[in-house]
Amino acid sequence: MHGGALIFGTRTWLSLEQIEYFTRSGFSIVNIDYRLAPETDFVSIIEDIRDAVEWVRTMAVKWYDFDVHKMAIMGSSAGGFLSLLTGTMEIKPNAIVSLYGYGDILGDWFAQPSEYYCKRPIVSRTKALESVGDKEVTNGVWERFDFYLYCRQQGVWVQEVTGLDRNNDSDELIKYNPIDNISEDYPPTLLLHGDRDTDVPYEQSVLMHEKLKEKGIYSKLITIEGADHVFDQHFNDPMVQNAFKRILDFLNLRLK
User: Fold this and answer.
1) What are the helix (H) ranges across the chain?
2) Are residues 204 and 216 in contact, defined by beta-carbon separation less than 8 angstroms?
3) C-alpha count within 13 angstroms, C-beta hemisphere, residue 179
4) Please, what is the angle between helix 78-86 and helix 42-58, to 10°?
5) What's the whole-number mean pLDDT along residues 219-230?
6) pLDDT of 171-217, one tens digit each?
7) Cα angle value 244/70/105 (rounded, 5°)
């Protein structure tokens, strides 16, 4: 599942290099889109993920030779968040891989203005709203980034994307916070994160890793030293190649 803060992005972001890497190793890939905020409400976006998993399990098998009893869910950034969230759902994958994702949308990192993004020209709410529309979309063009930039500069991502107040609606929000919903049957999880990430703090994967271990769930954290956000765009970098080899080892162990 692609990233983009649930605001922008598209499944076309998944590189052909990564697709070929996994298919050559015997895996099938279902690369999905989902509706985006703010035009689509947060709960409906989560339902899109549930529907996608259910479609693979019940419909896609009519046309493709999938073994739906050996399914991993993998995502980057916001897609990593969604992947971690599937571990809290009724029907869980066999394994989860999160690339620079986050397990805590209620942390201060999302509730405070981002020091990194505040170095950019400040985006007004008026300009932010001009970058989005009033019709549901799944193909999030880059122009929508202004809405995300506004959210991070003001520390209002939670309110703008979920439509809920971080303080007054905490009981509802916590239902969609992976780090607060780890059960004893949460899937084995692999987390990869650059320790110089300027968008999603490296600590987000550290915290999720520690919480999973505390709950007795298998978790492995791979730190990409010196790497920023979307480090996997540099797919041929030896450090990235090594990281993907370890993803492959994890999937072979957990699925094959």
Assistant:
1) 16-24, 42-58, 78-86, 108-111, 125-130, 145-154, 157-162, 170-173, 203-214, 238-255
2) no
3) 17
4) 60
5) 98
6) 999 999 999 999 999 999 999 999 999 999 999 999 999 999 999 99
7) 65
